[in-house]
């Protein structure tokens, strides 16, 4: 029973990690660098979601329109994804585009610094008080033979899997997706073939940020208290997941996100829960020692430009 | 009208170039002497003078803090800095330039080592008298020197060898904890470790051993990152080192023997300014020699092209492992000092925040450069202290500054610059 209960929780946390890891992975496959501000974009997304949902709820309360809670949630997710994608594009324009030919470590530093600016900016704008995400849907708990599942958890897992699948389809089937794949294949030549590099980079950041915003809202639904530093730890963990999955691999990032969720949930079953981080990261380290390119990553290639 | 403005600008140019020429003829020794006079002046008349021009007390950090806190005191603060620091330094340096040049030449003829020691002593005297005015200055100075050591040691791995290692807070934590355990266990009466085993009187003499222990433990820990680095580079190594950092932090949090998440306190107060200064000087000296040795060149070769380096008979494995151990050793020493300066450590100190700080210092100052590390560490720490009155906005201004540096100088302010001790201490060319 405990096993299944943990399985549900692992799936939920895995959904957050997977959605965020996708953003890391996509940016990596195009630009060959990690967007270290991504965890904070997740945070910004959650806050934008908070703003949008509060606005919608108060509009509904004023009688502008009558919508059920779940519809407001869907609207919130869509509007926030749209708005947060602009945050991602701005980050790309300010922090990454000027540094495209610089050493990759410099871009990593800019990313870190943009992250700090986003955190502090949020703190300066909204103050140190934690905000509470409005509860849009009622929590219903289903009892499946001793395993308790809430409708929120099911929703979170479903939404995250749907979004990952949609992204996968986007990359496989659309023209833009094809351009992205081409760019991932060869960063130097493909722009010469008429693929607009800057627009592709902006698109990638926008997509990644939109997914992060979705993750942020889902997180807000599950754990309604938001604070400006919530993106740091979860962002780094998702980064680990993106690496574990293999750089630039969408499927790998999703799976590794879920795997990380499982490791984190099942370690406390066997060991004392304070050892959770220790064992989780030891497993990560061992995996990388024996399989240095992640699960779906290509082997050490000449494309690495460090 | 136009002619005069043109003339003015020429005058300005001439003045500037004249100043530059004058400054280029003044040896380091004379600057230090000027500094000595300035800080002595501050010691004697600083307080009354500050009160006389309307400042509440002597500005602790060259007036930056007071300028930001009370903008209407800016003129007084500027006046104070000019009259107490700049003017005496400039006048004394200019006046003694000739004699100091002769002295420097004589010392250099005698033995360079002597000359360096004399420079360091003078420099230390300046710092000591400057810091004596307040405890705050002592603390800032100590933390700044420790930051220099940390930045330098990270620069070996990230700059000279070109890996992106994120494990430095981990190494630092290992060093801090092992050095603390050593001193607390042996020399302090502590709740966790019981009464002192050895008389505390001999403690200060064994403090270097404690630091060495810290460094060695950190170096052993570094093997966990160095060995995987044989097979992988770049992002995967970054993750491995990041995982290492989390592992160390989580391990210490779970070790109740050393206090767990509550941290470890009660370290004896041995890390005073001379000790920290001496350790930093030794660190700079050794690291500077290391990176200029064959080994240091091998590091650069591995960074630029590992395969080519291998073909040119560079033992890449040995090089990598040495760089990691060496960098981690000094990070451990710095950690040990850090623990004894604050006299309290807890695992939360050695997290992502510390990592961002050290990385910022390395990349701000400049990769592959001892000068750059010193400038970066001092710059970021001083900036952090000077902007303290801005509170929250400090964390917007400093990152913005770093982003600008990264955009306009992607490898840092002073990257790829050799640190030449002889050039520093030698007499400057005299006017004909």
Give a concise summary.
The complex is a heterodimer of chains A (306) and B (432). With 306 residues, chain A is mainly alpha-helical. Chain A has a single domain (2-290), classed as ABC transporter involved in vitamin B12 uptake, BtuC (Orthogonal Bundle).
Overall description:
The complex is a heterodimer of chains A (306) and B (432). Chain A is mainly alpha-helical. In chain A, 71% of the residues lie in helices and 4% in strands. Chain A is built from 10 helices and 4 strands. In chain A, the strands form 2 sheets. In chain A, strands 1-4 form a two-stranded antiparallel ribbon. In chain A, strand 2 and strand 3 form a beta hairpin. The longest helix of chain A has 30 residues. The termini of chain A are far apart. The C terminus of chain A is likely disordered. By secondary structure, chain B is an all-alpha fold. Chain B has 2 domains: 96 residues, no CATH class; 288 residues, ABC transporter involved in vitamin B12 uptake, BtuC (Orthogonal Bundle), CATH 1.10.3470. Chain B is 74% helix and 1% strand. A two-stranded antiparallel sheet of chain B has the order 1-2. In chain B, helix 14 crosses helix 15. The longest helix of chain B has 37 residues. Chain B is globular, with a radius of gyration of 24 Å. Chain B starts with a helix and ends in a 7-residue tail after the last helix. The model of chain B has no long low-confidence stretch (mean pLDDT 87). The chains are: A mainly alpha (306), B mainly alpha (432).
Q: Give the C-alpha Rg of chain A.
A: 19 Å
Which chain pair has the greatest contact?
A: A-B, 50 and 42 residues
- The side-by-side strand order for the widest beta sheet of chain B comes to 1-2
Distance between the termini of chain A: 49 Å
Mean pLDDT of chain B: 87
First and last CA, distance of chain B: 37 Å
Helix and strand topology:
The complex is a heterodimer of chains A (306) and B (432).
Chain A: H1 2-31, H2 38-62, H3 69-96, H4 104-126, E1 131-132, E2 141-144, E3 147-150, H5 151-173, H6 175-185, H7 197-222, E4 225-226, H8 230-245, H9 250-270, H10 276-290
Chain B: H1 2-24, H2 28-52, H3 64-69, H4 74-110, H5 112-132, H6 135-160, H7 168-187, H8 203-226, H9 234-254, E1 264-265, H10 273-292, H11 294-304, H12 306-311, H13 316-342, E2 344-345, H14 352-365, H15 370-386, H16 394-408, H17 421-425
Antiparallel strand pairs in B: 1-2
Helix pairs in contact in B: 2-4, 2-5, 4-5, 5-6, 6-10, 6-13, 6-14, 6-15, 7-8, 7-9, 7-13, 8-13, 11-13, 14-15
């Amino acid at each position: 029973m405990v096993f299944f209960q943990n399985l549900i929780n692992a799936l939920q946390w895995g959904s957050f990690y997977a959605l965020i890891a996708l953003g890391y992975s996509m940016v990596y496959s195009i630009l060959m660098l990690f967007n270290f501000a991504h965890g904070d974009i997740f945070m910004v997304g959650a806050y934008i979601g908070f703003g949008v949902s509060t606005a919608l709820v108060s509009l509904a309360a004023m009688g502008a329109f009558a919508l059920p809670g779940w519809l407001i949630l869907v609207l919130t997710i869509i509007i926030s994804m749209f708005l947060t994608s602009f945050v991602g594009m701005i980050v790309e324009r300010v922090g990454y585009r000027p540094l495209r030919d610089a050493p990759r470590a410099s871009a990593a530093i800019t990313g870190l610094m943009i992250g700090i600016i986003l955190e502090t900016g949020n703190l300066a704008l909204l103050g140190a008080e934690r905000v509470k995400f409005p509860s849009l849907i009622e929590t219903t708990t289903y009892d499946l033979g001793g395993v308790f599942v809430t409708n929120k958890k099911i929703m979170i897992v479903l939404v995250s899997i749907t979004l990952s699948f949609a992204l996968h389809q986007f990359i496989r089937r659309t023209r833009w997706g094809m351009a992205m794949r081409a760019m991932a294949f060869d960063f130097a030549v493909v722009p010469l073939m008429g693929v607009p590099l800057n627009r592709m980079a902006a698109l990638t950041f926008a997509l990644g940020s939109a997914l992060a915003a979705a993750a942020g809202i889902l997180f807000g639904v599950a754990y309604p208290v938001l604070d400006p530093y919530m993106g740091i730890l979860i962002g780094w963990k998702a980064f680990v997941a993106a690496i574990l999955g293999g750089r630039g691999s969408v499927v790998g990032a999703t799976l590794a996100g879920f795997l990380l969720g499982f490791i984190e949930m099942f370690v406390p079953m066997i060991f004392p829960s304070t050892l959770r981080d220790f064992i989780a990261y030891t497993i990560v380290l061992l995996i990388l020692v024996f399989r240095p390119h992640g699960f779906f990553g290509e082997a050490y290639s000449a494309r690495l430009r460090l | 009208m136009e002619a005069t403005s043109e003339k003015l600008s020429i005058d300005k140019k001439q003045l500037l170039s004249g100043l530059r020429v004058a400054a280029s003829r003044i040896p380091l020794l004379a600057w230090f002497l000027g500094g000595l006079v300035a800080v002595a002046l501050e010691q004697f008349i600083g307080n009354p003078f500050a009160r006389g021009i309307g400042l509440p007390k002597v500005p602790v950090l060259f007036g930056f803090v007071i300028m930001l806190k009370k903008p209407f005191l800016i003129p007084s603060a500027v006046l104070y800095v000019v009259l107490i620091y700049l003017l005496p330094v400039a006048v004394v340096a200019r006046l003694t330039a000739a004699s100091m040049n002769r002295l420097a030449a004589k010392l250099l003829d005698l033995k360079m080592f002597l000359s360096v020691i004399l420079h360091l002593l003078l420099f230390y005297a300046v710092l000591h008298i400057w810091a004596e005015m307040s405890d705050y200055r002592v603390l800032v100075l100590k933390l700044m020197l420790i930051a220099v050591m940390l930045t330098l040691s990270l620069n070996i791995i990230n700059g000279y060898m070109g890996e992106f290692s994120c494990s430095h807070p981990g190494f630092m934590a290992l060093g801090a904890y092992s050095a603390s355990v050593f001193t607390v266990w042996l020399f302090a009466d502590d709740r966790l470790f019981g009464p002192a085993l050895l008389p505390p009187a001999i403690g200060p003499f064994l403090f270097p051993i404690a630091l060495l222990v810290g460094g060695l433990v950190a170096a052993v820990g570094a093997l966990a990152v160095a060995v995987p680095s044989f097979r992988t580079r770049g992002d995967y190594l970054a993750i491995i080192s990041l995982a290492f950092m989390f592992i160390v932090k989580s391990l210490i949090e779970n070790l109740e023997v050393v206090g767990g998440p509550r941290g470890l306190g009660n370290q004896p107060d041995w890390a005073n300014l001379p000790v920290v200064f001496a350790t930093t000087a030794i660190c700079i000296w050794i690291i500077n020699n290391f990176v200029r040795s064959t080994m240091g060149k091998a590091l650069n070769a591995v960074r630029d092209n590992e395969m080519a380096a291998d073909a040119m008979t560079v033992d890449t494995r040995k090089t990598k492992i040495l760089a990691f151990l060496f960098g981690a050793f000094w990070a451990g020493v710095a950690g040990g000092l850090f623990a004894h300066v604050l006299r309290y450590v807890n695992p939360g100190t050695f997290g992502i925040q510390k990592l961002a700080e050290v990385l910022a210092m390395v990349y701000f100052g400049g990769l592959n450069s001892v000068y750059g590390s010193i400038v970066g560490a001092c710059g970021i720490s001083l900036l952090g202290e000077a902007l303290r009155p801005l509170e929250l906005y400090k964390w917007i201004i400093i990152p913005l500054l770093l982003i600008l540096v990264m955009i306009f100088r992607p490898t840092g302010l002073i990257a790829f610059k050799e640190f030449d001790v002889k050039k520093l201490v030698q007499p400057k060319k005299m006017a004909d």
